[in-house]
Amino acid sequence: MKKRLLTLIFTLFVGTFSVFAQMSDPTSWTFSQKKTGDNEYALTFKATIQPGWTVYSMSTPAGGPMPTSINIEKVGEGIELVGTAEESEPNKKHDDVFGVDVWYYSNNYTVTQKIKVTDPSITIVKGSVEFQACQEGACVPGEKDFAIELSDKGAEKATVAAADETKDATEDDSLWLFFWVAFGSGLLAVVMPCVFPMIPMTVSFFMHGDSNKAKAKAKAIFFSLSIIGIYTALGLIISFLLGPGFINWLSTNWLPNICFFIIFMIFAASFFGAFEIVLPSWLVNKSDKQADKGGYIGAFFMAFTLVLVSFSCTAPIVGTVLVEAARGSVLRPIVGMLGFSIAVALPFGFFSFFPSKLSNLPKSGGWLNSVKVVLGFIEVALGFKFLMVADQTYHWGLLDREVYIAIWVAVFTLQALYLMGKIKFAHDSDLPYIGVPRLVMIIITMSFVIYLIPGMFGAPLKALAGYFPPQETIDFDINRIVRDNAKEIMKSGVQVGGTQGAASAASNEPVKYSDFLHLPHGLDGYFDYDQALKAAQAQDKPLFIDFTGHGCVNCREMEQSVWSDPRVLEMLKNDYIIVALYVDDKTKLPAEEVYVSEYDGKKKNTLGKKNTDFQIKQFESNAQPNYILLDSRKGNEKVLKPHVLQPARGYNKDRDAFVKFLQDGLKEYKARAGK
């Protein structure tokens, strides 16, 4: 710990300007073209990404980090886009900060866009690539201009990013996690009414159907391996048919998400006993006849028959695994079915080797159907996640956060009542008493319901962020109501708490961009540097500059983990004027504010470009988050050296250091002002 603090202090007071204030450019881009037809070309944009950095896919969903975008000039004026841009296969992970799944690239990234030139005078295609590169502790927005000369002699073929020989560790971890989730799903399938009773029947068939016990065990093992092969083949087929492009479409488009929602509801209805999902009887009978032939062929068809016969119970579970798999990389269906099938085959192989252990298995009974029904409730809850994706994409407003949480509260309350025996379905047995396992499930379910309820009134419920709509969609947020009421009181002339709320009152002009930009934790502040500086001078306070971005993962992490500290909040409210400068905001500047930068000679026509240019020119940095404490006094608008902070790797959660950063800056400001 001491070593870490010493390193931190050294970084802040000695190395800040020489290391973190330097310009970061973690990517290098190359551009090429290939003629594919009459006046048609394939443009290829390839990025080489420095180790430790990531760039986000064009398919990154709304509410997540800044996606990559390709901007081609003269589209509609002599150039037509042919289809959509095609990307190399991305990695995928769930981002707890943004609460969404994100697609990203490490090492290499390739985009190919086909175009058709309808104006013969166009021989050079110009435009720019906008993107965001991030590593732990910093995000860097980037824009690369390109001018690609069109000719018949392009690259022999369009460049395609090769698969990385060393896979990203996060993706590997994600696949392993999904494997174990699928494995757990397979264990649930084993205790389904269509599968569990077949374990002793199948093992007895092998053990008593052949006088050679070793041969019988070999056939039983082959039977288990056949189950694994059949299910894994299904995963291979899904991966082969879909491909990475179609998988990305499944993940982000509203139509497949609506279909997935309906499928999950059908699965749930099947588990509740409304109907059974069955395959044609002729298929089952034909497989069963082949199983009668004996030998290893017979063992294979016995496994195939088991898969078919158990379809009514396992189909919803298999379907759930495949739906989740199809929303990730092309390897996930294979990994998912492998994990699922190993879990299903495991008990058959185990009891074939140790048939004496069969007596330890619990007897079949009504508890098997209870497992199905409980899974039905879980299917309903998970299914609404897909409807949520479609709802957010098209802004239908059907599933605000409190509505979504209310549905989950209702679903899991009904599940608890079912486990208590207060609700009964058609295929359920009588429940004369509640056993210990069922009691444990009741306690877990009710505890989960109690945990959910505060979320309807504004509690963040961080553990489930990826399954709920954004916090901003909640209508009845108690914290927000209290903050808004406090602001109204302050406007009427009554001081409540700190003085930050009076910042806007110090001037007669409204806070620019406050209609769509907001600070976290109910803090008041500004989103325009000049306006914030005037307010700081009027109140004789130092200026806290926050260079941030909508798609900056590390910025949200700092706000959640560090800004939430009561000591930090108190100082930001009472001792500083805050200005948040978003470097990736696409809001167009008024015509009179558009200018050409002295730094790069480019036109700055959006709020984000203006703030990025300001950060680079004034502070020689382009990384986010970047926090700067400024002496706001007229004629002394200088950084409170050495209090320039851009969190380093491993530092972004150190609250004590951030508190010291603010305290030292305030002390320096007062010393300079002679206070």
Explain how this protein is built:
This protein has 675 residues and is of the alpha+beta class. The chain has four domains: 27-149, Immunoglobulin-like, CATH 2.60.40; 177-281 and 289-361, no CATH class; 385-473, no CATH class; 503-674, Glutaredoxin (3-Layer(aba) Sandwich). The chain contains 18 helices and 16 strands. It has helices at 2-20, 169-190, 198-208, 213-252, 254-272, 281-291, 295-309, 311-326, 332-353, 366-394, 401-419, 436-452, 478-491, 529-539, 553-563, 566-574, 607-619, 655-673; strands at 27-37, 40-49, 54-56, 69-72, 79-87, 91-95, 100-105, 108-117, 124-135, 138-149, 543-548, 577-582, 595-596, 603-604, 626-631, 638-645. Strands 3, 4, 6, 7, 9 and 10 form a six-stranded antiparallel sheet that branches. A four-stranded antiparallel sheet has the order 1-2-8-5, with no helix packed on it. The chain has a four-stranded mixed sheet with strand order 12-11-15-16, sandwiched between helices. Strand 13 (595-596) and strand 14 (603-604) form a beta hairpin. The longest helix has 40 residues, at 213-252. It starts with a helix and ends with a helix. Mean pLDDT is 76; it is low at 1-22, 154-172, 494-506 and 646-652. This is DUF255 domain-containing protein. One of its GO terms (cellular component) is membrane. Residues 1-21 form the signal peptide. Residues 38-146 form the Thiol:disulfide interchange protein DsbD N-terminal domain.
